[in-house]
Design brief:
Layout: H1 10-26, E1 29-37, E2 40-47, H2 55-71, E3 76-79
Parallel strand pairs: 2-3
Antiparallel strand pairs: 1-2
Helix pairs in contact: 1-2
Length: 81
């Protein structure tokens, strides 16, 4: 059963990030949770990921796609600098 935005918590977000982090760590990067406000999640890329030429694809087809697969359209992702 999909989770709704009223139930969305840090543990839910971290479960997605934990699935993604191993791939990012292979290239010296990472991702961290900055904040959750309702259904809006703000994330920050870390390490080598911040300057990687693949960053737009990693965000869209890696991280954002994983959130969409888990939470459908319930989560909006914003990116902190």
């Amino acid at each position: 059963m999909p989770i709704d935005s009223a139930q969305l918590g840090e543990a839910d977000i971290e479960s997605v990030l934990e699935a993604i982090r191993p791939a990012l760590l292979l290239d010296g990067g990472g991702v961290s949770l900055v904040s959750i406000a309702g259904n809006t999640v703000t994330l920050r890329m870390l390490g080598a990921c911040r300057q990687c030429s693949s960053l737009p694809a990693t965000k869209k087809y890696g991280i954002e796609a994983e959130f969409e697969a888990r939470f459908e359209d319930l989560v909006q992702i914003l990116w902190a600098d």
